Amino acid sequence: MRNTSIQWCHSTINPIMGCAGCELWPSRAGLLKELQSRIRQLSGDSSPDRIADAVADATRPFQWTSELYAARNQVAAQVAAALGLPPGTADELADVFRGNCKCYAGLLGTLRAGHAGYADHFEVPKAFPGRVAGAARWRAPSPAENAAKPWLIGAPRMIFISDMGDALSADVSFDYLRSEIIEPVNSADGSRQLWLWLTKRPGRLAEFGRWLADQGVAWPDHLVAMTTVTSQTTHARVDQLRQVPAKLKGLSCEPVFSALDLNLTDINWVIAGGGSDILAEPFHVEWALQLQQRCREQGAAFFLKQLGRRPFFDGQPIHLADPHGGEWDEWPDPDWKVREIPAAFRGFAQTPAISTRQRPALPGPRPAPVGNITGNSK
DSSP assignment, residue 157? Predict the structure, then answer.
């Protein structure tokens, strides 16, 4: 999308639609394990085989988490009937699917599965060549865009790569990533933009950076490497991100489910926020304020995107009209209104585009035309 409501960028682009899964989008097996656990809690049934058989019968037609989510009410009703559970239990079982499937990309991808421009199944990433090259031709932010997001004024167009999938999913070849991301980002048009590449697989992103270096290809200075940290259990991603040979690095701590104690060495930007889905976990503003203080101590820019659907402060709920909690005019404390971007982001706005004649061709062999997301390279 050339124009997005996401507060920390101007635009989004997806060379890959779909994702192999993460803590916000569990595997089919993991989701069914949670369902069986909830059934035992509600029924008191001590026969795990009976529960497992009922769940297996109800879910057999559905191969993917996205299919289970789409059929959640049907599955819940069938399981409840098979086990003779009390009225209303089916609704609570359906909430297991809704409570564990928290990825907005997965939810939207499930709703539009098979539609033009989307993956057939969210868990099976699908390639869309040419999208980044098209986005590279977009113009600088307009006056209307600057007025809507004044905190981004002075930066070039900031384009978020992979808001509807994860291009570092295992089946996506490095050849494809080079031809469909690195080359258009490095083009004369692409050099006018600032690209924000987000993944939950920073270890593979670092491996890709090493693969590029082995071919004599430098990581573009205007391609920001980013990863997501949702709780302290995923903090190791920060160390992996540090291994990416990018000049600029950022973290998206949104949605965040707990207080975070992170080492921000070599991290330039931290985005924080709460979840906005109907069954979102509570978001305690204190977590964001602690992150902001850590950013001040370690020299990173801090950006509070949204308070989410269930914000709390000092143990008390905060009632907001905006279900995302992103309209900061509603926030009760003006000191929370902090949406910083690294100073280096604005520096790129003064960098002239490099013409095709000035920019040498990338070294190394060109990959064959990509018809799918796999290839001989990693």
Answer: -
Q: Would you kindly state where each structural domain of the chain is located, as residue ranges?
A: 11-19+129-350, 28-101
Model confidence, pTM:
0.91
* Helices 72-83 & 48-59 angle (0-180, nearest 10): 140
Cβ density class 54-64: b for 16+ within 10 Å, e for less: bbeebbeebeb
CA distance 7 to 167: 22
The string of pLDDT tens digits covering residues 114-168 is 899 999 999 999 999 999 999 999 999 999 999 999 999 999 999 999 999 999 9
Q: Report CA-CA distances (Å) from 214 to 171, 223, 241.
A: 21, 19, 19
- The per-residue b/e assignment along 184-206, b for 16 or more CB within 10 angstroms, e otherwise, is bbbbebbbbbbbbbbbbbbbbbb
Higher pLDDT, 369 or 3: 3
- Dihedral pair phi/psi, residue 311, rounded to 5°: -80, 145
Nearest to 93 by CA among 34, 46, 47, 23: 34
Residue 128 burial by Cβ neighbours in a 10 Å radius (0-12, 13-18, 19+): middle
Q: Which amino acid is at 185?
A: V
Separation CA 179–CA 351 (nearest Å): 23
For residue 316, the SS3 value is strand
Q: CA geometry: angle at 158 spanning 126 and 233, to 5°?
A: 65
Beta bridge partners of 270: 251, 302
Neighbours of 85 (CB within 10 A): 19
